[in-house]
Prior knowledge:
By secondary structure, this protein is of the alpha/beta class. It has 2 domains: 7-91, Arc Repressor Mutant, subunit A, CATH 1.10.10.10; 133-290, Glucose-6-phosphate isomerase like protein, domain 1 (Rossmann fold). It is 56% helix and 8% strand. It contains 15 helices and 5 strands. The protein has helices at residues 13-22, 28-39, 43-46, 49-56, 60-69, 75-91, 95-98, 109-130, 133-144, 157-170, 181-189, 207-218, 233-237, 256-276, 278-291; strands at residues 148-153, 175-178, 195-200, 222-227, 240-243. One of its GO terms (biological process) is carbohydrate derivative metabolic process. InterPro entries: Homeodomain-like_sf (IPR009057), HTH_RpiR (IPR000281), RpiR-like (IPR047640), RpiR-like_SIS (IPR035472), SIS_dom (IPR001347), SIS_dom_sf (IPR046348), WH-like_DNA-bd_sf (IPR036388).
Amino acid sequence: MTAQTPDTTAPTIGVANRVRAKLPEMSTVMTKIAQFLLDNPQAPLKMSIGELAGRAGTSPATVTRFCRLLGFAGYSPLRVSIATDLGRAAGRETWTIDIGRAFGPDDSPRAVLSTLVNAHTRSLQETAAIMDLPLLKRVAHKIAVSTHVDIYGVGGSSMLAAEMQARLYRIGINTHYWAEVHAGLTSAAVQGRTCVAIGISNTGHTDETIQMLRQAGHAGALTVAISNNPTSPLAEEADVRIITSVYEQYLQPDDLSAKHVQLLVLDLLYLLVAQEDFQQSTTNLALTAEAVSTHRVASEGAMPARPRHSQQ
């Protein structure tokens, strides 16, 4: 049996996502390297650092700084990561084994489930790999000491905004979420320098979310964009960009895997906020749990016995 040759034009998913996520932080010279790698994803496997620098119109020292910005110690670890990504791409050739980019109408429920698990797991792993933890920690601190937090999300993103609002509110953070643009703009207009505004959009092109975040920024709030697109209008509008990664898309345009990776970011952000004043957070959680405890059905062992009618 003849071994298949990997498709050298396939995108290097992990490295490519890191490059796209870091684009807003890159200098003009580094952007040339980024564009060259996105256009020629396997080039480092064939070129020395000097050759790549020459093709990108920069210097080997700049290439090294570029690698470090992506989270690699240098050029060699970058090459190893690209080779690893290429191996994964080759493995995806047989999608019935390593479930590929799409599912068909005749696939079994087991195959569909495997497809989803594979895609969602890789999306979570990719997002974790590119996550800027020091940045998230700084955002969490700003939220913890803020006087008010606005969260904007329209359509599918509104449920993520609502979930985050409820969780932050329970630990004592004055938080509101807005899915309707008129109400959201009204709230955004009265933000200030002690406030934080968060916009959530998968594509980063939702006009209402962009408008609300822009208004909050004009009012002086720290603005945060959570999106899968680092070069989107929403990301460009924000002071802080938190970029997530979606490995595969199956049913455009509303992939749940996109929401899951954003929920991962929100979950982490919530826990980091709770850590800022852990004692107060746990106290507030206990108080809010006690407040609704009478509305919960008791467990079977704790249920009072029903009165029995005596037989005549």
